[in-house]
């Protein structure tokens, strides 16, 4: 039986793809795979038995990715699976930032008497707002979410400018040619009425928007953060809003310092909280994990290369090693010295690490165990695994 541990509620539509005959869920503390959402995973919670961690979601800043890579643990995420949910919430927040609908809804609820309709008509002017049409939106980070936000904001009649120096070719093709490209991030800060950020939290994006960047913004600008709290310096935002140097801030990340401020809207990290996004993310995370456990195939990993090969032989050996010269030569030599025939082989490197799949025309398990032992003793090899071909092919 394969052992899987979960943290957070992972949608059942995904979990039910792990067949009861093959997978135990949360049965012990020595899992092969961990599936989680935003739970901050401590290194100590990752047992040596763990081969892979799948994030049912996008941001992997809650996982110690670097130490996982060093230990040969493959980390996956589910790119794009929750992007539509976040996009819809960003569009809703943009609309809510110009129309005081929540105040209006709450106000109407406390009216009494038989002339509510008249009272509403008489006082509605206090809830008048503005329109998004014709205003300029800046989108920082044109990935799965940013690209959707940019395209749909354009369809709402906004002028849209995007900034992403690392935009992928696929995403670039999906972005409307009417979305202007900023050459420098300062163009977004200085010219936009609304600025929304959709970049991953990394060392270089920590406080990407701080005092200096806010100072460049129009005093009438509204900033939105649905990416990660640490990307925006909250104390700088608070100071700017209190000094009337920034009009408003919407964030998906709760911070006690931002509460009870009429120009700051705080949501409890709801971006991906729709049934559809939770189902999509869970299904994708489970599919990726299952495929890795059962075949060694890597797809959608954030720390190891994508490696795929049809599995036709009786056994497959998988090797994770440091990306140094002559590793393939050594792996093949060890297998050949044991008089095992290699049916098929694939190797891919990614930065300092590489991954190899070797399909062997051999069923003698003692012979295979001997090869595995020798591979494990080889310098720069971090993990070796043997997978027996199951009936269900991928
Ligand atoms: N609020 C939520 O519930 C929620 C849901 C999903 C994702 N997120 C957050 O949003 C982030 C983005 O999600 P996504 O699905 O669009 O990811 P993505 O990987 O598809 O896109 C991220 C984009 O940011 C760009 N980028 C990276 N560094 C940049 C920089 N310094 N300046 C400009 N662009 C930069 C990348 O090139 C990429 O195109 C995630 O990493 C996650 O932290 C939040
Ligand atoms: O990075 C993500 O995918 C989001 O922040 C969603 O987080 P959640 O799965 O905890 O809702």
UniProtKB/TrEMBL annotation:
Keywords: NAD, Oxidoreductase. The keyword NAD applies. It is an enzyme of class 1 (oxidoreductase). It catalyses: (R)-2-hydroxyglutarate + NAD(+) = 2-oxoglutarate + NADH + H(+); (2R)-3-phosphoglycerate + NAD(+) = 3-phosphooxypyruvate + NADH + H(+). One of its GO terms (molecular function) is phosphoglycerate dehydrogenase activity. Residues 316-389 form the ACT domain. InterPro entries: ACT-like_dom_sf, ACT_dom, D-isomer_2_OHA_DH_cat_dom, D-isomer_DH_CS, D-isomer_DH_CS1, D-isomer_DH_NAD-bd, NAD(P)-bd_dom_sf. Its EC number is 1.1.1.399, 1.1.1.95. Pathway: Amino-acid biosynthesis; L-serine biosynthesis; L-serine from 3-phospho-D-glycerate: step 1/3. Belongs to the D-isomer specific 2-hydroxyacid dehydrogenase family. Catalyzes the reversible oxidation of 3-phospho-D-glycerate to 3-phosphonooxypyruvate, the first step of the phosphorylated L-serine biosynthesis pathway. Also catalyzes the reversible oxidation of 2-hydroxyglutarate to 2-oxoglutarate. This is D-3-phosphoglycerate dehydrogenase.
């Amino acid at each position: 039986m394969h052992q899987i541990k979960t943290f957070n509620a992972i949608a059942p539509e995904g979990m039910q793809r792990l067949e009861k005959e093959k997978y135990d869920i949360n049965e012990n503390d020595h899992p092969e795979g961990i599936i989680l959402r935003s739970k901050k995973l401590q290194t100590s919670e990752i047992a040596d038995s763990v081969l892979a961690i799948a994030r049912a979601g996008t941001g992997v800043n809650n996982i110690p990715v670097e130490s996982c890579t060093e230990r040969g643990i493959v980390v996956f995420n589910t790119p794009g699976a929750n992007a539509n949910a976040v996009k819809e919430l960003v569009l809703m927040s943009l609309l809510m930032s110009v129309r005081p609908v929540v105040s209006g809804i709450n106000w109407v609820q406390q009216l009494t008497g038989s002339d509510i309709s008249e009272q509403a008509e008489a006082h509605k002017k206090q809830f008048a707002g503005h329109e998004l049409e014709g205003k300029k939106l800046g989108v920082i980070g044109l990935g799965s979410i940013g690209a959707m936000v940019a395209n749909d904001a354009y369809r709402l009649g906004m002028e849209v400018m995007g900034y992403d120096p690392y935009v992928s070719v696929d995403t670039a093709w999906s972005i409307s040619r009417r979305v202007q490209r900023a050459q420098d991030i300062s163009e977004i800060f200085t010219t936009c009425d609304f600025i929304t950020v959709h970049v991953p939290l990394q060392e270089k994006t920590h406080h990407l928007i701080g005092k200096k960047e806010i100072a460049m913004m129009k005093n009438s600008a509204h900033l939105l953060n649905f990416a990660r709290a640490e990307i925006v310096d909250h104390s700088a935002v608070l100071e700017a809003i209190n000094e009337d140097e920034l009009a408003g801030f919407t964030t998906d990340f709760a911070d006690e310092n931002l509460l009870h401020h009429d120009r700051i809207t705080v949501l409890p990290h709801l971006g991906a909280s729709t049934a559809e996004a939770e189902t999509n993310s869970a299904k994708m995370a489970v599919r990726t994990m299952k495929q890795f456990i059962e075949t060694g195939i890597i797809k959608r990993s954030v720390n190891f290369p994508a490696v795929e090969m049809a599995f036709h032989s009786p056994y497959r050996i998988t090797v994770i090693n440091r990306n140094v010269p002559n590793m393939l030569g050594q792996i093949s030599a060890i297998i050949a010295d044991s008089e095992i025939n290699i049916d098929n082989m694939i190797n891919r490197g990614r930065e300092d690490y590489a991954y190899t799949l070797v399909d062997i025309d051999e069923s003698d398990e003692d012979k295979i165990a001997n090869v595995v032992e020798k591979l494990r003793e080889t310098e720069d090899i971090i993990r070796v695994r043997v997978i027996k071909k199951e009936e269900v092919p991928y």
